[in-house]
Amino acid sequence: MIQAQIAIVLGKLPKTIGACVFAILLTQVVGGCTRQPSAESTDSASGAPSSETNEGQSEETDESSQDDLMLVGDSNAASTPASPAINEPTGATDPQPNKDKSASIDVPQSVTSQLDGRRKQLAHDLKPAQLRTFLSEADIEMRMITRGESGIEDSATAFNELKRIATWKREASRRLIEHADATEKEKAIGRQGELQSLSHLASLGDLKAAESLQTLAESLQEDSDPDVRSDSQLVLIGFAIEDLRNGKEGAPSRVVSQIDRLLQSSSAPDAATLMVMGQAKDALLQFEHVEEAARVRAMILEEFVEPAEANAGESGAMEALVDMARQVAGPNFQVSEATSRVQQLMQTVINETNEGTDPSNSAVSTSDWKAAIEALADEQPDLLTTQFLAGASLEVETVGRADLSEVTYQVLDDKFAAMQDDRGSEARTALQARDNREKIIGKTFDPDLLSTDGDELSMEDYRGKVVLMPFWSAAFPDSLLVVDNLQAIARQYPENVAIVGMNLDVQSTDVPAFESRNKIPFPSFRSVTDPEASVANSVAYRFGVVSLLFVAVIDQDGKVAAIEFSGRDLTPVVENLLR
User: Fold this and answer.
1) Residue 79 gets which letter from DSSP?
2) How many CB atoms neighbour CB 379 within 10 A?
3) What does the pLDDT look like over 103-136, one tens digit per residue?
4) How much of the chain exceeds pLDDT 90, in percent?
5) Torsion angle in degrees (nearest 10) through CA of 91, 92, 97, 103
6) Which of 62, 255, 381, 532 has the maximum number of C-beta atoms within 10 A of its C-beta?
7) 551 has which bridge partners?
8) 577 membership: H or E segment, kind and range
9) Residue 275 and residue 328: Cα distance in Å, rounded?
10) Can you tell me the distance from the alpha carbon of 187 to that of 178, in angstroms, rounded to the nearest whole number?
């Protein structure tokens, strides 16, 4: 609930800080100040944090407990004299007496945190390791609030608490940057923390923080630390996207150039980079900057997908990132001449089918179709093309153009099936399903399965009748759209035709309840799908099911006579068997 309330509040913020709202989302992805490997450890006896130095030596902190160092007061302390006044953080010192006071941080009044009944404050004279711990804890508490895990149920309280913690986070970051004992890496963590805290504050409606964030990001985009440099460039991409949305001149090219700059300076683009690139691509498309959007899409594929396709066998985490990248990139919105040609031919075939044109009189010849899909496969040999061709093969098979279907499967086999990546897997799956559909025709089908109610059910009981078997799933109700046609046929031939379904739901699905609610009048076998198994559903695999709708027609001898997945009227098929 609190997450939804915070989302509503953020949605009402001024348009000018939209880029910074995105920046705080980025911080969630990269883990705030914990993005870099943390060296802190906490002694279980004393609670005192320690930090590994560059030489690997452990540097012990003050013997005071971590709670005393980091947290001041309790749930009743908001009105006590110990609470800090505005503009006076607890223990705050000015390491630079001549520093411009206009840059002082406006610390809001404390708001009681319901995380554990205590308010996070900055204690006096914290060491670098303790400041790092403070930053990490601040990130954890902010994530708990935004996820609704803090115990705070009021959106206004949550909003104020987020702002208060972000303000302290900025102060801690500055102290770490300026601390005489901080290492270069710790100072870099401080710079990263200040970037993040400003993005937090800007996303919470602080326009001055938004201006400071942009200025800081510009000054740090060539920072010596790669994490600081990357975060700065991510923020600047966000601002460029906002300029694009506000119609500022030159914004589209700045979005692209800033992304290119990020990729050139980053050795290992991560999920945060991918998210920003996806946001940029979508924003460019939204405002019809198709050429720039296509360039960003190409960058996504070049950085995340193509290296993985060239090096099969990546780790599970990398595979997940590559899959995400494919989804973020999406289909090629710049329709190539080859893609357009295949789409035109496909539409012609569909129109001819709807008009009842005999395939022998078709305007689409086998040679024309083959030339078009081969050109597409050569021009764009990526996963999306493989999936497109697999779908096209099924579509022309559905409308009865076996000649076009055959050459499409042949191209999938020749161009993609041998590849040891997702393209090869997609092609092999389509080819295997086609082979299975061909092999099942003429085979007796009498599964050793119970009904959806757990009762005995046997195809032997239907010998002498034509059985119409819709494959269906409660998870995909549209799989039952064909049932009206099947029932019409069964009513026309009540003594000769029966309907027996094949349910494909996972084990946890309450199939009988679904059947009761939807008044399904025919019995069904229960073939449980297991998404974790090498073959998710053995019956579906045997029939080559790759989509629903799907109906198997079984003749009077119990043999599979036909397979239909177009949803067309099966009356002619049944009448042919009844002759």
Assistant:
1) G
2) 13
3) 333 333 333 334 444 455 677 788 999 999 999 8
4) 30
5) -170
6) 255
7) 470, 564
8) helix 571-578
9) 8
10) 7
The radius of gyration of the chain's CA atoms, rounded to the nearest angstrom, is: 32
Query: Are 314 and 322 within 8 A, CB to CB?
Result: yes
Q: What is the largest CA-CA distance in the chain?
A: 102
pLDDT digits (tens, 9 = 90+) for 55-85: 333 333 333 333 333 332 222 333 222 222 2
Using a pLDDT cut of 70, give the percent of the chain over it.
76
**pLDDT band, very low/low/confident/very high, at 522 (cuts 50, 70, 90):** very high
Whether the Cβ atoms of residue 474 and residue 502 lie closer than 8 Å to each other: no
Apex CA 320: angle with CA 475 and CA 271, to 5°?
120
**C-beta separation of 164 from 208 below 8 A:** no
CA distance 20 to 222: 20
550: pLDDT strictly greater than 90 = no
Interior angle at CA 326, CA 320 and CA 332, nearest 5: 180
Mean of the pLDDT values across residues 441-447?
91
Whether residue 426 has pLDDT greater than 90: no
Distance separating alpha carbons of residues 261 and 259, to the nearest angstrom: 5
- pLDDT confidence of residue 98: 40
Bridge-based pairing of strands 501-503 and 497-499 is unpaired
pLDDT level of residue 43 (50, 70, 90 thresholds) = very low
CB-count burial class (<10 Å; 0-12, 13-18, 19+) for 116: middle
CATH number for 443-578 (one of 3.30.2170.10, 3.40.30.10, 3.30.230.10, 3.50.50.60): it is 3.40.30.10
Cα(10)–Cα(495) distance, integer angstroms: 65
| Model pLDDT, residue 526 | 94
Burial class (CB within 10 angstroms; exposed 0-12, middle 13-18, buried 19+) of 226: middle
50: helix, coil or strand? strand
Strand, coil or helix: 378: helix
**Of residues 142, 176, 226, 186, the one with CA closest to residue 51:** 186
Which long-range contacts (C-beta less than 8 Å, at least 24 apart) are formed by 312-315?
Answer: 312/420, 312/421
Tokens of 474: 């409660």
Tokens 């042949």, residue located = 410
From 399, 349, 352, 393, select the one nearest 373 (Cα to Cα).
393
Annotated domain spans of the chain: 122-329, 337-440, 443-578
pLDDT at 319 over 50: yes
Query: Tokens 């980079």 identify what position?
Result: 273
Mean of all residue pLDDT scores within the chain: 76
Q: Quick one: pLDDT at residue 16?
A: 38
| Tens-place pLDDT, residues 269-281 | 788 888 889 889 8
Place of tokens 């009904």: 451
Q: List, in order, residues 6 or more apart from 350 with CB less than 8 Å away.
A: 395, 399
Tell me the C-alpha distance between 14 and 138, whole Å.
25
CA angle 465, 470, 476 (to 5 degrees): 165
Name the residue with higher pLDDT: 91 or 497. 497
Report the CATH fold assignment for 122-329. Answer: 1.25.40
Reported in sequence order, the residue ranges of 473-511 that DSSP labels E, i.e. its strands, are 497-499, 501-503
CA separation for the pair 61, 48 (Å, rounded): 6
Sequence-ordered list of residues with C-beta below 8 angstroms from that of 257, at least 6 positions apart, any chain: none
